[in-house]
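Re: weekly structure request thread

Next one in the queue (314 aa):
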Amino acid sequence: MEHYELLQMMSLPLEQKIIKTKQRIKEFYEKFDGKVYISFSGGKDSTVLLRIARELYPDIVAVFLATGLEYPEIMAFVKTIDNVVTLHPKMGFQEVISHYGYPVISKEQAQYISEVRNCKDKSGINYQNRMNGNKWGRGKVSEKWKFLLDAPFKISHQCCNIMKKNPAKKYEKETGNHPITGIMAIESSMRTINYLKTGCNSFNGKRPMSQPLGFWTEQDVFEYITTFNVPFADVYGNIVKVDGKFETTGVDRTGCVFCLFGITQGVGENRIQRLGRTHPKLYKFCLENLGIKEVLGYINVPYDIVSTSTDVTK
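Done, posted below.
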């Protein structure tokens, strides 16, 4: 798929997007004779995906990965949904960061930093590529983050693999089911690149996968929820329109509560500061028990609670 084709699909009205998404789900479902499942996180994107999929196939199973890193409101919401299989990782988050390291900055940078720090051959091509880039100048530790090579704590990209991907792959091997996910291309440059390679449905390769919301935007998800009055997790607060765009009065993204990927991006209150307002006990555990206070201090990211009048969660 060409990039302009993706942009054209992203510009379609919601009604047409729903039709195309149902077509992609049906194609994937029929390709594997119904041996598929919905990857369900309890977040708004996968909630919309599950709603659409079950309009076609009411009995399609949802799979929820209980990592222990979810907001309590997400856990409560998942329990209200029928036909959900819950999986658990072999390692808890504390064990992962102790053994491998913290997920910080971005998945790519965390991987590069980890590879450099654990490389035994400092003269080898792998080390040189990660320090200086390949022949295109890519795939290296950013100059901005090279100081993290000397950080007094471990850094790694392995958290998602161990706590999410590995349990999912084990389930797929045991059941023969293939995943349908709520991933959207717009979420990151890497997801855009991957979507352009495969489109919504990837039938080949070691792990066939469907991402039928790939050409949706977050605004589409909000519009779908409000148009069809879809129940969603309380942690988002309410969905409101501000200057013509949908926003939430609670958290804007759910995911893993303690994840530090992307923590340096954006302006204003970051997710750890917000956690201090909305979930004080989790905030205290995060800073004091998990050592995240040290990590944020080292990368110069604020963690003190910012007072605001929009506190809506518990």
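Residues 165 and 273 are 28 Å apart (CA to CA). The chain has three domains: 3-92+160-234, 104-150, 262-298.
Next request, please.
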